[in-house]
Amino acid sequence: MTIRLATTADVSALTELAATTMREAFGPPHNPAELVEDYIQSAISVPILETELADRRSTFFILESADGQPVGYAKLRRYAPRAE
After folding, report:
1. Dihedral over Cα of 83, 43, 24, 35: its sign
2. Can the peptide bond before residue 29 be classed as cis, meaning omega within 30 degrees of 0?
3. Which residue, 8, 23, 42, 43, could crosslink 27 as a Cys pair with Cβ 3.0–4.6 Å?
4. Predicted TM-score (pTM) of this structure
């Protein structure tokens, strides 16, 4: 396993990982599937993650398996999130 900084080239894999882990962590039986899918549609997309990757206050790490496949990620955010 390898941990490395994510780049904009990772945005598709990061989007898939984020959606998958959101479903696994917060989906049934914890929350209704529709609620989780609504959140994914509103907060996890290629354009949204491209913006976050470009934000100097955010740092993403990718965990890769021995064969180079992305299997996990972490996001660190400096300072408070922007008010929207």
Report:
1. positive
2. yes
3. 23
4. 0.81
Q: For the chain, which domains are there?
A: 2-77 (3.40.630.30)
What is the distance between the alpha carbons of residues 21 and 70, in angstroms, rounded to a whole number? 12
Task: Evaluate if residue 67 carries a pLDDT over 90.
Answer: yes
Condensed to tens digits (0 to 9), the pLDDT of residues 28-65 reads 999 999 999 999 999 999 999 999 999 999 999 999 99
Q: C-alpha dihedral over 38, 40, 42, 44, to 10 degrees?
A: 180
* Residues 49, 14 contacting (CB under 8 angstroms): yes
Distance CA 44, CA 64 (A): 20
